[in-house]
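User: Can you model how zinc ion sits in this protein?
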Amino acid sequence: MRDLALLPKAHLHLHFTGSMRVATLADLAAEHRLRLPDALLDANPLQVPADERGWFRFQRLYDAARACVRSEADMRRIVDEAAQDDAAEGSGRLEIQVDPTSYAPFVGGITPAIEIVLDAARLATARTGVDVGVIVAASRMRHPLEARTLARLAARHAGDGPGEVVGFGLSNDERRGETSEFAPAFAIARRAGLASVPHGGELLGPAHVEDVVQHLRPDRLGHGVRSAEDPRVLERVVEEQIALEVCPASNVSLGVYASASDVPLRELVQAGARVALGADDPLLFRSRLAAQYEIARAAHGFTDDELADLARASIRASRASESVRSRLLAGVDAWLAAPDAAEVATAG
Ligand SMILES: [Zn+2]
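Assistant: Here's the modeled complex, given as C-alpha cells:
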C-alpha cells in the first residue's frame, strides 16, 4: 500500500469557509470577540440526519464560522492555509469555491472580495506549489438575479492560470430555489468559457440530477452521487461525460448515507462515471482530501491502481492548464511505478 498523501491529485470540491482549520477559526473568533457554538471546536465531525432540520443545523454552524471571517487578512489566511493543507496531502491543483457575497461588507464590496481571493490564490500558488484556481459560486437561497451579477463578475476573471476563475457554481440547500431560474447566470458563465459546476444529487435524488443537467448543463456536478439510484440518469451522466465531485465524508456527516461503505463509489466508477474525490467542508466534517482516498481504499477496496485512476480522473476533470495537468499525470505514473513500501518490507 502506497502513501496516499504522496499521490498527485486535483481537489475540485472545497468551500472557502469550510476549508478552514479549527485552530484558525478559534483564532478569528477570539480576535473578533465572537462566541462560537461548541460543536465547531470539539473533536467530533458533524453528524446530522439528511432532513431539513439536519441541514438547518449544518447551515447554522457554517454561518457561525463564516461570521468570523471579517477582514482581508482573514480571507488571505484561509486561502493560503487551504493551499498549504492541500500541498501536504499530494494535491497539485486546488479549485476553491467561494461565494464572495458574505465577505463583501467587510472589504468594501463584492468586487474587492473576489479580487482578494484571486490575489491570495496567486500568492498561495507561488508559495506552496499547488496550482490554485477559483470557482465563484452563487447560492440557491438568494435571488437568481444575484447569481447573474456573480456570473458577470466571475466572467471578467476567467482563465486557467493560478488565481483565475475557472468555474461557476451553485450551492446551498438543494430543496430551495428553482433550478431553471439560475440558467441565465450559467449561460453568462459558459459564454466566458467557465466550467459549469453546480451542486446536485446529494440531498435530493436522480430527478434533481436531471433537473440540474437539463437547465445548468454541468461539466461537473457537486456530489451527484445519487445518480446511482436511477440507471437511466447515471447513463446520461456518463454519456455526457459529466464528472462527479464525490465527497464521501461529507455524505456521511450530512446523513445522505449511513456509513462510508454505503457511498456508491464503486457503482459510479464501474458505470464509467468520471469521479473526482473532494473534502467539501473539512472544518465541519473533520476529514481532508487524502482521507477521501483512504475511504476508497478501506471501505471500498480500491487497489493502488484504482486509486491512481481516481487521481487521474480528478486531474483530467480539473480546469488546470495543459502543462499542469500533464505534470500531475506524470506524477501519478511515478507514484505507481515506485515500489510499494509494504511489499518491499515483506520481500526483504
Ligand atoms: Zn459542497
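A couple of observations from the model: The longest strand covers residues 131-139. DSSP finds 17 helices and nine strands in the chain.
User: Helpful, thanks.
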